[in-house]
Amino acid sequence: MEKLYYTIGEVAGILGEQVSLVRFWNNSYPGLFSAKRNAKGNRFYVKEDVETFKQLHYLVKEKGMKLDGAVKVLKEEKAEVKAKVKVLDSLRSLRERIVEIRKSLP
């Protein structure tokens, strides 16, 4: 069963980045994410937000785009970027499984 809400620390962990980067992206483009805050003021993100962060991370960190350009591409070509990120996630998952199998072999 998947989680309904993710903390900012969990999102940062998924991306392999610092919490400050996730916070910066969230604050720089408030309409892009739907973060909710609890009574303590902690941010919580839904799965769609996590996917958007992954897509933004792909464009900025892996494709080398500037943040403003990446957000523009994300808004204009979201389906294409989403498909590419999904393929990359699948490949990374397969690689992890192969490494685990390889370690278990004599």
Description:
This protein has 106 residues and is mainly α. Helix content is 67%, strand content 7%. It has five helices and three strands, in the order βααββααα. It has helices at residues 8-15, 19-28, 47-62, 67-76, 78-104, and strands at 6-7, 36-37, 43-45. A three-stranded antiparallel β-sheet has the order 1-3-2. α1 (8-15) crosses α2 and α3 packs across α5 (78-104). The longest helix has 27 residues, at 78-104. The chain is globular. The model has no long low-confidence stretch (mean pLDDT 88).
Number of strands: 3
Strand order of the largest sheet: 1-3-2
Note the overall shape. globular
Strand content: 5-15%
Helix/strand-derived category reads: mainly alpha
How is the main sheet built? Answer: 3 strands, antiparallel
| Multimeric state | single chain
Order of helices and strands: EHHEEHHH
Instruction: Report how far the terminal alpha carbons are from each other.
Output: 34 Å
* Poorly predicted parts: none
What are the salient characteristics of this protein?
mainly alpha, 3-stranded antiparallel beta sheet, 106 residues, globular
Helices and strands, with pairings:
Layout lengths: L5 E2 H8 L3 H10 L7 E2 L5 E3 L1 H16 L4 H10 L1 H27 L2
Antiparallel strand pairs: 1-3, 2-3
